[in-house]
Amino acid sequence: MLKQQYDFVLSSRNTLLTYIGTISEQDFLTENSSFGRGSIRNLLVHICQTYSAWIGERALGIEQDFLSNCQSYFKQVDEYIGLFIEKFKGNEQQEIELKRNGETLIVNPLKLFTHVITHEFHHKGQIMSLSRHLGYTPVDADIIR
After folding, report:
1. Could you say which of 15, 33, 47, 144 is the most buried, measured as most Cβ atoms within 10 Å of its Cβ?
2. Residue 35: helix, strand or coil by DSSP?
3. How far apart are CA 136 and CA 99, in angstroms?
4. Three-state DSSP class for 136?
5. 52, burial (CB in 10 Å: exposed 0-12, middle 13-18, buried 19+)
6. What is the pLDDT along the chain (145 residues), one digit of tens a residue?
7. 138 near 128, Cβ under 8 Å?
């Protein structure tokens, strides 16, 4: 089920990334403090960093080399998600221990997966709003469209 759900996320993300390809480089990098991380680029990198930290580092134990290139970063995220889905296939409700800021958290893979994908969609909304603020007309990147 996680694989199918992530396929929905990828479809939405691909629509978003195609749309972002229509935005000028200047607007892509324009900082606006009203939108969380400041720019469309920074929001995309933050999405990737969150996946990499929660899924790659904490759940899979993969030491992180945080990237700044969005396309490469999303490919790395997709690899982590694939490994995560395989590792926890059939055990989505199993409790696992994760370390964050010196604390131990007890979560299950379904909750962790839900956390990272809803985080992505939250920031996708910020990206769409920011692009509208910059004079663009956002596309529909919902899962059902």
Report:
1. 47
2. coil
3. 40
4. coil
5. buried
6. 899 999 999 999 999 999 999 999 999 999 988 877 789 999 999 999 999 999 999 999 999 887 778 889 999 999 999 999 999 999 999 999 999 999 999 999 999 999 999 999 999 999 999 999 999 999 999 999 8
7. yes
Nearest to 96 by CA among 78, 111, 77: 111
**What stretch of H or E contains 104?**
strand 103-107
Residue 84's nearest CA partner among 61, 102, 63, 64 is 61
Tokens matching residue 44? 């995309």
CB within 8 Å of 40: residues ≥ 6 apart: 20, 23, 27, 28, 29, 30, 127, 130, 131
CA distances for 82 relative to 12, 58, 79, 136, angstroms: 17, 15, 5, 33
Run of H or E including 100: strand 96-100
